[in-house]
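Lecture 7, part 2: worked example. A protein chain together with 6-O-phosphono-beta-D-glucopyranose.
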Amino acid sequence: MQYAQLREFPTDFLWGASTSAYQVEGGWDADGKGPSVIDARTHLPEGTTDFTVASDHYHRYAEDVELFAELGLKAYRFSIAWTRIQPTGTGPVNRAGADFYHRLIDALVAQGIEPIVTMYHFDLPQALDDQGGWANRDTVDAFAEYARVVFAEYGSKVRYWLTINEQNMMILHGDAVGTTGQAGATGKKGLYQQNHHMFLAQARAMALCHELLPDARIGPAPNIVSVYPATPAPEDVLAADDWDAVRNLLYLDLAVRGSYHPLAWAYLAERGWEPDIAEGDLDLLAAAKPDFIAFNYYSTQTVGASRGDASDLQTRGTDQQLVRGEVGLYRAEKNPHLQTNAFGWEIDPVGFRTTLRRTWDRYRLPLIITENGIGAFDQLVDGRVHDDYRIDYYRRHIEQIRLAITDGVDVFGYCPWAAIDLISTHQGCSKRYGFIYVNRDEFDLLDLARVRKDSFGWYRRVIDANGSRLED
Ligand code: BG6
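Predicted complex, written out as C-alpha cells:
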C-alpha cells in the first residue's frame, strides 16, 4: 500500500544497536571466566581470527559506552556470557564476572541508555557441553538456574530480556555459527531433541522472569525472514509455506503459542526426527508467554518446489543467511530482483516490511528488531571510514519500518547489528558491521582504537530526528 502521509515513529521508540558477548568482549578467560563452546572451537575458517581478544570491549566498555551515548543510542542490546557468571554453567556466581555486567549496565543507565539483555547468544558453557550440551535435559535445569541468577543480579536495572539468540540458526546452521560441535549433535533427530530442550529452557526463563520481575518484559530472539515462492506456480507457493514453517514458524509458535506448528511437526514426523516429549513439557511450553517478539532480520529467502534430487541444494558453502535447499522440502532459488552484499547475502528492505507485517499479523505482539545490518570490508583511510553503503542499507530499512508502522504494525525498537565492529560468527573481523570502527585486523591487534565511521554521524542524526529525516 502507498501512503500520502506516514505515521511518525513513537516518541519512546528504542533506537539502539546490538552486540554479543563473545563477538565483542575478548577477555575470554579474564576474572574467572570459564570456557564456552566458542572458546573451545579448534577449527576456525582459514584466515580468520579467534575470539580471545575480539574488540576488547571487556576492558574498554567505559569508552565504548561513552561513544554509544554520543551516538545517541536509546537502547543497547548485548548478551551476558553465561561462563562469566557461572564458569562451568552451574554452581556459585563468579563475582568478578558478574560485576563486569553491573559496571556495564550502570554505565548505560547513567547515560540514559536502556539495556536489552540477551541471556544466551551461541556461547554455551563448555562444561555443560561436555555433559551432552542441549542433548542433555539437565541443561534445561542449568539454564533455569542461570536465569534465576541473572534476574536476581540485574533485575532491578534491566527491563528488557531476550532468552536465546537465533535458536533456529543454531539448529539449521550450527556449522556456520559455530555451535554444531556440541556433543550429542549426531544427526537431525538429536538436533531436534536439543531444539525441544531449548524451547523448554526458554519457557522456564520466561515464566521465571514473570514470577520474579513483574515489571520486566521478556521475549524470544529468533532470526526471521519472509520466504518467497520463486514463481506463482502453486507448488512453489506450497514449498515457500513449508520452508516458512520449518525455518520460522516452528520457533515463533513454540515461543508465543507454546505448541508445535502442525506443518513443522509433520515434517519432523515424516523423517523420524520428532523429539521425545516428556510428561508436563507441553503444559510448561503453553504456560510461558512472551511480552514481545524480538527478531533478527538480514534478508528474505526465495524457494521453489523440490525436484527430489541433489539439484535442490545450493552449494554456496556454509552460511546462515544463504538458502540451502532440502531434498523433498524446498529448492534453493536466487531472487533476480535483489542485489547482494559482498558476502552474497541478498538485500531486501521491502521484505523487511513484509516480515514485520506477517509477524505482527500472526502473533499481535509488539515487535523489536534486534539485528539488521550489512557486513562489509570497511577501509580506514586517513582516519576516516566512508561507509556510504551502510548508510544506504540502513536508510532503506528504516524507511520500511516507518511504512510498517503506518501499516499498523506495533514496532517499539530497532537495534542494528552492530554498535561497534566485532568478530563475525565465521568470517573473521574483516567482515565489519559497526558504526564504530575497531582498529585491528585478523591477526594483528594494532591499537584497537575506536574510530567513528560516517554511518555513526548519520545514525546520530536519524535518532535526533526520531527517524523523520533519513537523508545524509
Ligand atoms: C546473526 C547472529 O546470525 O548474524 C550474529 O546473531 C552474527 O551473532 C550476525 O554476527 C551476522 O552474521 P555473521 O556470520 O556475518 O557474523
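The two ends are 26 Å apart (CA to CA). The chain has one domain: 14-464. Keep this in mind for problem set question 3.
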